[in-house]
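Input.
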Amino acid sequence: MSESPGNEKTDTNWTKEGSGEQRQPTQEKAMESTHITALQSKHAGLDRELRNEQARPVPDSARIQELKRAKLKIKEAISLH
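Output.
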């Protein structure tokens, strides 16, 4: 939104296409989508690390717990969006 000369807020995030007006996705929504995608990617990476650690002949239980906690935090962050 921007302020016009009369200090009225106007929505500048739209375009006219054809005979009707359509709203474009806001930059905020695009950023949120990018953030969620990054969180999902990080979650998948942690999942791979966890599987690799569990597949070791002598897994490090402290590392496994650390990875599980990190995955849970990311999962919670994703669910809040």
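The longest strand covers residues 14-17.
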